[in-house]
Amino acid sequence: MEAEISRFKKKLQEGLERTRALETWVHNISHSLAWRALERFDDLGRRLIAPPGTRQGLFYNLVTRKVEADADVSRVRRSSKLPNFLKSYDKLTKRLLQTHTREHAMSLAVGGGDFEAIGLLEYHLLTQNGLKKKDIVIDVGCGSGRLAFQLSRHNFEGDYIGVDIVPDLFEYAMNLCKRPDWKFYEAPGLIIPEPDESADFICFFSVFTHLLHEETFLYLKDTKRVLKPNGKIIFSFLEFSIPSHWWIFETSLADRSPDKVLNQFVSRDAIQAWASHLELRILEINDGDKPHINLPQPVRFDDGREMVEKGNLGQSVCVLTKVYDNERPGR
């Protein structure tokens, strides 16, 4: 009995803390220009902040997810001694901007260069997986716009949403693409603040390589919510079983700086476990060192190397989709 009372008190305290966090966040945004503009439309405002469970509760639900995501990131990071990836990437980007031209810095900040070549490989990977002209693409970790630039260059007519933790990067991408109908914004945590079942493709190129496993799982959990039926999640990752990835691990060992960028390796059994628990299905996993992306024309890298007919990103690639009711065990 005492144990049950203790658990109840703990849950009650957690609920009170979450409520206070929500009230604080709502209070802060209530003073923003965006909120004041929304208040001018009283009826719309009342419907947007309706309680969850009602048809009009979109804004309320997004606010709740934001508070929960911030708490998740903070809790996971507090339990580790790893550098904060937000500060790490922001410092890296600002340091590059001080020593290089803006264009070169924006290329180096994401993957160390080869802006056009990697963007082309990402674009052809999406088309190989069925990208259509008017699909909706969410690019988490969009960086300086490698994929976005190639989509705009190839006259992609669908909606594109670019999300990143460094404003300098996604603002550069936004100006580069010149697509006022596309959205770019700062990542609010381990969530994607878009409607349920709204995206055909959700990409994470060189994102899970810099997150803890717990953070990756939380991100995938919300990604499933946003993904359309038959939509696809595509992410790249590092693994110890690929010899060409080892140098990245050695570089991390040698780097003693307190604000270094985390390089995280992921095993395939971890991916299997995440997919199983989230009811996602693995469509394919491709080795990072083996060509698997069909190329209609050669892709040239900054050092003069070329990939012809087939290419690869260097990182391994996994493609996921939702599990349907008739695919669940016992159905």
SSE topology sketch:
Layout: H1 2-30, H2 33-39, H3 42-48, H4 58-78, H5 85-99, H6 102-108, H7 115-128, E1 136-140, H8 146-153, E2 159-164, H9 167-177, E3 183-186, E4 199-204, H10 213-226, E5 227-237, H11 246-254, H12 268-278, E6 280-286, E7 293-294, E8 299-300, E9 306-307, E10 310-311, E11 316-322
Parallel strand pairs: 1-2, 1-4, 2-3, 4-5
Antiparallel strand pairs: 5-11, 6-11, 7-10, 8-9
Helix pairs in contact: 1-4, 5-6, 7-8
How is this structure best described in words?
With 331 residues, this protein is α/β, with parallel strands linked by helices. The chain has helices at 2-30, 33-39, 42-48, 58-78, 85-99, 102-108, 115-128, 146-153, 167-177, 213-226, 246-254, 268-278, and strands at residues 136-140, 159-164, 183-186, 199-204, 227-237, 280-286, 293-294, 299-300, 306-307, 310-311, 316-322. The chain folds into 2 domains: 2-78, no CATH class; 85-327, Vaccinia Virus protein VP39 (Rossmann fold, 3-Layer(aba) Sandwich), CATH 3.40.50.150. 46% of the residues lie in helices and 16% in strands. Strands 3-2-1-4-5-11-6 form a 7-stranded mixed sheet, sandwiched between helices. Strands 7-10 form a two-stranded antiparallel sheet. The chain has a two-stranded antiparallel ribbon with strand order 8-9. A hairpin with a 5-residue loop joins strand 8 and strand 9.
